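Budget justification aside, the reviewers requested a transparent look at the raw inputs and outputs of the sequence design task funded under Objective 1. We therefore reproduce one unedited record. The lines immediately below are the structure tokens for a 31-residue chain.
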């Protein structure tokens, strides 16, 4: 397993997932 390659794949996905959660929660609470 190459952690370096997974790091380049997981990091953007995690950032996008967090961004989507913030947008969804912000829209739900009207922030």
């Amino acid at each position: 397993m190459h952690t370096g390659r997974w790091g380049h794949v997981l990091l953007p996905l995690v950032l996008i997932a967090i961004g989507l959660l913030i947008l969804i929660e912000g829209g739900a609470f009207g922030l």
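The longest helix spans residues 3-29. The helical segments are 3-29. Computational costs for records of this kind are itemized in the attached budget.
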